[in-house]
Amino acid sequence: MRNDTATASAVLALTGGPDNVRHVTHCLTRLRLTVADPAAVDEEALRALPGVLGVIGAGTPSLQVVLGPGVVDTVTAEVERQLAEAPAAEPRTKRAAPAALRRIADIFVPLIPALIGCGILAGLNGLLTNAGWLPGLTPALAAIASGFMALIAVFVGYQTAKEFGGTPILGGAVAAVIVYPGVAKVTAFGVHLSPGQGGVLGALAAALLATRIEKWCRGRLPGALDVLVTPTVTVLVAGLATLYGLMYAAGAVATAIGTGANWLLTTTGPFAGVILGGLFLPLVMLGLHQALIPIHTTLIEQQGYTVLLPLLAMAGAGQVGGALAVYVRLRHDTALRTTIRSALPAGLLGVGEPLIYGVSLPLGRPFVTACVGGAAGGGFVGFFALLGEKVGATAIGPSGWALFPLLTGNQGPAPAIAIYAGGLLTAYAVGFAATLAFGFRRGTASGTTPPVPDRTPAGSA
Predict the structure, then answer these.
(1) What pLDDT shows up at residue 90?
(2) From its phi and psi, is residue 458 left (phi > 0), alpha (psi between -120 and 50) or beta?
(3) CA separation (Å) from 442 to 131, 228, 333, 460?
(4) pLDDT at 163 > cutoff 70
(5) Domains within the chain, CATH numbers bracketed
(6) Measured between alpha carbons, how far is 14 from 20 in angstroms, rounded to an integer?
(7) pLDDT per position as a tens digit, 389-436
(8) Is 109 in contact with 28 (CB distance < 8 Å)?
């Protein structure tokens, strides 16, 4: 039986104890810790801990412990509880210069559950509407599914101010200007603004500015004036800057992102699919995939779906195909085959860390050949985009088979589902075949002599 309390206690102990932890957060699969002294982290023992699927960033202040979906939520909550109960030598809000991409993740990742839930309801509502079923229910579903997206700028503003040390509600208040219907009466650069113009990018910029203004005011005003003047000046100055500059600029950037994504797929569809599907897993390992979250969200705001996520999801499918090839080839490696059997269900649902850190990456070459499978699946989906059949996801977060309820496109959900399924099958097949053919050293066999897997690092294959 899973014991999240024991896991949390062990993680804290192996990362140098509560006094060494300065900040805690999590994404869908990873516990993210900022540590004061990276040398105090026992990486080997942490990797060997039951329930830990991998460790990223060892030796740096930003440590990521891969635990998997569901588990990471409860373990993080338990870590936070134990930290709150332990006496701290220093304030745990202090951060060790986190990278910009990590801070972007900390802003947007908490919004993903709402994006998933509302995205699935939007897809369900679309199916009911197209089929003409339950006409009395579809307006209610539309309202529930669309409410969050209509106000997502407010949530982004709140999270941005919280992440950068401002008052969260002030960040949300300034970002709310973007979605307020009355902005249609405001003229900027000779044209009337539109409610929602600039979207999440504008909200991000507005809340960042508000946080800077708030900090500037608090450092210069006495307490008696601070409580009145600081919030007023923050909302006024940041709000005016948002109306007369940030909304216009962010709107131009958001339009460029949408136009660029459409051009990329309609002009270079297969090529774009190969690149995105083939390189996504290395980006995940480096943490660079976090930069895509605002782009996904912007596309969902503009078009109702992101055309990038189905392409990127092919990377995980390639890992599944590669893992199956390892399972077939290395028949005598009982421990590895057991790992594959336990990790495959998660892999099929788009959670790739168990297969990456437990199978393909330690073996080296299978990681590279699995990425080839992802490239093939991406090329398949991209080819249909070139033909005018776009496949998109109404929310971010899920992948693999779990993405099916969120699929739609310019021709509706049915063609999108069929194309996506074809991409998955292509990625499975090519990942399997490429790994079987090139994923092992010459002479490795599945006969009577137990084979020795290639343990070279992935980058050297």
Answers:
(1) 52
(2) alpha
(3) 55, 74, 17, 16
(4) yes
(5) 4-94 (3.30.1360.60), 110-263 (no CATH), 279-445+453-460 (no CATH)
(6) 10
(7) 999 999 988 899 999 999 999 998 999 999 999 999 999 999 999 999
(8) yes
In angstroms, what CA-CA distances link 13 with 49, 64, 368? 11, 15, 35
**Span 287-302, average pLDDT:** 87
Secondary structure string (H, E, C) spanning 401-430: HHHHHHEECCCCHHHHHHHHHHHHHHHHHH
Which amino acid would we find at residue 158? Y
**C-alpha span between 8 and 366 (Å, rounded):** 32
Of residues 360, 365, 371, 373, the one with CA closest to residue 433? 373
Which pLDDT belongs to residue 443? Answer: 55
Report whether 70 contacts 29 (CB < 8 A). no
- In this prediction, residue 343 carries a pLDDT of 85
Q: How confident is the model at residue 172 (pLDDT cuts 50, 70, 90)?
A: very high
For the question of residue 27 being annotated catalytic, the response is: yes
Question: What's the rounded Cα separation, in Å, for the pair 30 and 109?
Answer: 11
Task: List the Cα angle 270/115/126 in 5-degree steps.
Answer: 75
pTM: 0.82
Among 27, 118, 217, 371, the active-site one is 27
Euclidean distance between the first and final Cα of the chain, in Å?
38
In the sheet where 21-26 sits, what is the strand order? 21-26, 30-35, 62-66, 54-56
CA 379/CA 427 separation, integer angstroms = 9
Spatial distance between the Cα atoms of 342 and 412, rounded to a whole number of angstroms:
35
Closest CA to 154 of 113, 206, 225: 206
